Amino acid sequence: MTPPFADSHDARITHDEPEMLRLTRLLPGTIDRVWAYLTQSDLRATWLGAGSMDLRPGATVTLAIDNTKLTPSADNVPPNPATQGGPKTLVWRVVESEAPHLLVVDWGTAPDASRVRFELAAEGTGTRLTIEHRRVASRGMLLGVSAGWHTHTDILRDRLAGHEPAAFWPRYAKLETLYAGRLPG
User: Fold this and answer.
1) What is the pTM of this model?
2) H or E stretch including 174?
3) How far is Cα 54 from Cα 38, in angstroms, rounded to an integer?
4) CA atoms within 13 A on the CB side of 130
5) Is the separation of the CB atoms in 29 and 43 below 8 Å?
6) In principle, which of 106, 128, 129, 183 could form an S-S bond with 123, CB 3.0–4.6 Å?
């Protein structure tokens, strides 16, 4: 088990199992508002990716993701433009949905696709978001999803608070370096 990483914005990431990460963070806003940012295309597009979502188990969701467009900044260029730049299309398959508390999706369509579980719980005046990303097949992928979920939820936190988020890629690159020093090699 890797020791947890926590930042000043209440993001906590642990790697309790070899192919899994768990991110928990307290977000501003009600559980219904955070659920809307997770499931409604126009709101999800502001922090992750656009795509209409049918929440019935077995339904597929096609997400259009372009991290260079999530935050308006001249320095928002990926650290490795050849492999990280430009828009991507990602397909999720809904495994389980219990609005507004739980969404479980397969990340991709292959039989060995990774699985992402989003749990929301009211906590004080905010909402506790827990993301578990399982079946992360390699250290490189674990590094990428750790820095990625952390950066994406930084943007979500800022959007929910009504703040303009910092540029995606500089934050991602910093977090990737931090996680590289913490994850087993």
Assistant:
1) 0.90
2) helix 168-182
3) 12
4) 13
5) no
6) 128
